[in-house]
Design brief:
Layout lengths: L5 E2 L7 E4 L8 E2 L2 E2 L9 E3 L8 E4 L2 E6 L8 E2 L4 E2 L24 E6 L5 E2 L3 E6 L5 H9 L20 E5 L11 H14 L4 E8 L7 H8 L5 E5 H4 L2 H19 L4 E5 L4 E6 L10 H14 L3 E4 L9 H5 L5 H20 L10 H5 L5 H8 L8 E5 L9 E5 L5 H10 L4 E6 L12 E5 L2 H6 L6 E2 L1 H4 L5 H16 L5 H4 L17
Parallel strand pairs: 12-13, 12-14, 14-15, 17-18, 17-21, 18-20, 19-20, 21-22, 22-23
Antiparallel strand pairs: 1-2, 2-5, 3-4, 5-8, 6-7, 7-9, 10-11, 10-16
Helix pairs in contact: 1-5, 2-3, 2-11, 6-14
Length: about 500
């Protein structure tokens, strides 16, 4: 079967997407190309007057800044943002979820408190940046080199690793919301079922006192802790930290995997290095997988509030209640105010790489990004790093910056991360395994050591979105059962820990 050189996403769209480079004078959908159209970019298939809205996905993605003729390349030179009314229609499209029976299963780890884990790490957390180096020295004693034969944990094969998660804050910060957000994030990791044991290292004089963290977040039964100043300096603290890890290794290694219902999966949905194909191949395929997770009784977390901006009205229509929908709208208003106070605007979000890949405005990016969440009801909206307890599709407020966003999701309990990319983002997020999903085959082939799944097959006509989505869901189950993802094979995931820093550094 001959594959069209362009992709039409909705019957009402005034633009279509190039599957590969379209040369001038090429005819597509009865329109002759005037310009060279790069892969993943838009070509106009009808005229647009200056100021007229441009549609993709059947939705407004921007407004023509000059008259656009059929066959022209549509991008930053002739389209930009603009204001338009959104109909939130709270709950109008909410409907019962068709659950799958019997549900799927995976081979997970059952913790003593009943929670399900997909990995088995020992964690070294830090209260402040001043203790980051010491935490790193402790973890380095047990560090596996993925490209060498030595394995300091050879006697403990069921321990996935000892990981230090360090950050750049913890002091010189306001004691209000910025401190609460940091503590909520650290507590989410301290409680994460993918950690068998956790120690937190502090300096001793920081704003984020370990005692305050433990009391505020009720962590007394979960954390071992020490400060460099009280233990007696760097060497003694490293020795004490290493001794702690050696104490718990045997206990950590006594875990076993057992059959667990897929309803105990909490899957974080991420995208980074997006391109014009993201909303065509990988993101909607992940949306199909998300629906399968939810229909099997599990939860999915969509985040990156700034990359949902302009498309939030499509989620409010799926909200299970007006209250849930209004929480999402309130987030958008907060972000408008927050970016304005900092001399920025949300439409600055598409990166140079996004634009090179064919994305023009935040509206276009948002409409493609939201496809990761599938089609089920929006059941809850939560704060950054807040524990996710609802079953179904949950939205978490986070920035669009991938490491910060994913850190919040994992702190919220995500035990698997699915990350789509068009330009080729490399990423891991210990202690949760990260599955990388490519939007196009050329990038997948270049970065085969980093990509787990190729959705470029959809663009080539070899596979449907539904088929690719089933492949992603099957991969989630295998990875949750212990199969290592590509990012794990390269030992990604500790340097990417990045709590959201709010407020001034003083």
């Amino acid at each position: 079967m001959e594959v069209s050189p362009v992709i039409r996403l909705h019957a009402s769209d005034g633009v279509v997407i190039a599957r590969s480079t379209i040369a001038p004078a090429t005819t597509v959908e009865s329109v002759v190309a005037i310009d060279r159209i790069p892969p993943g970019h838009k070509i106009a298939v009808r005229p647009h007057a200056k100021g007229e809205p441009v549609h993709r996905y059947g939705q407004i993605i921007g407004f023509a800044t000059e008259a656009i003729s059929p066959g022209q390349h549509v991008h930053v030179h002739n389209m930009s943002m603009g204001d338009f009314a959104r109909d939130y229609a709270f709950g109008q499209d909410a409907k019962p979820t068709a659950m799958i029976s019997p549900p799927a299963t995976f081979e997970g780890i059952r913790r003593a408190d009943g929670r399900a884990a997909t990995r088995n790490y020992i964690g070294v957390l830090t209260s402040v940046n001043c203790s980051a180096h010491v935490a790193g020295l402790i973890a380095d004693v047990f560090k596996r080199n993925p490209f060498a034969d030595n394995d300091p944990l050879a006697d403990y094969p069921k321990v996935d690793g000892v990981v230090a998660l360090t950050h750049k804050t913890g002091c010189g910060m306001a004691a209000g919301e910025p401190l609460h957000v940091l503590r909520r994030t650290l507590a989410g990791y301290a409680r994460h079922p993918n950690f068998s044991h956790v120690v937190v290292i502090g300096l001793g004089c920081e704003v984020n006192q370990i005692g305050g963290l433990i009391a505020e977040q009720k962590l007394s039964d979960r954390l071992r802790n020490m400060t460099i100043q009280s233990v007696g300096g760097t060497r003694k603290t490293v020795e004490a930290g290493v001794e702690f890890v050696r104490e718990v290794l045997a206990e950590s290694n006594r875990v076993r995997r057992e059959t667990i219902l897929a309803g105990e999966l909490i899957v974080a949905l991420q995208c980074g290095g997006s391109d014009g194909y993201s909303g065509v191949s990988a993101n909607p395929s992940l949306g199909v997988a998300s629906d399968l997770v939810v229909r099997n009784g599990g939860s999915v977390i969509l985040s990156e509030t700034t990359e949902t901006y302009g498309a939030e009205h499509l989620f409010t229509r799926r909200a299970v209640s007006r209250e849930v929908g209004e929480k999402l709208v309130a987030l958008m208003k907060w972000w408008e105010d927050y970016t304005a106070k900092n001399g920025a605007e949300i439409n600055a979000n598409p990166s140079p790489g996004n634009k090179a890949g064919g994305l023009t405005t935040i509206l276009e990016k948002s409409l493609g990004a939201m496809a990761k969440a599938g089609s089920t009801n929006l059941v809850d909206v939560v704060k950054y790093a807040q524990q996710v307890t609802a079953k179904g599709f949950v939205f978490m407020d986070t920035p669009g910056y991938d490491p910060v966003s994913a850190t919040g999701q994992v702190a919220g309990g995500a035990n698997v991360v699915c990350f789509t990319t068009g330009r080729g983002s490399v990423f891991g997020c210990k202690p949760a395994p990260s599955i990388k999903i490519a939007t196009n085959s050329s990038m997948y082939q270049r970065l085969q050591d980093d990509m787990d799944i190729n959705c470029g097959t959809i663009l080539e006509g070899d596979e449907t979105v539904e088929q690719a989505g089933q492949r992603i869901f099957d991969t989630i189950l295998r990875v949750a059962s212990g199969e290592k993802s590509k990012s794990e094979q390269s030992d990604f995931g500790s340097a990417e820990f990045a709590p959201w820093q709010l407020g001034a550094t003083v």
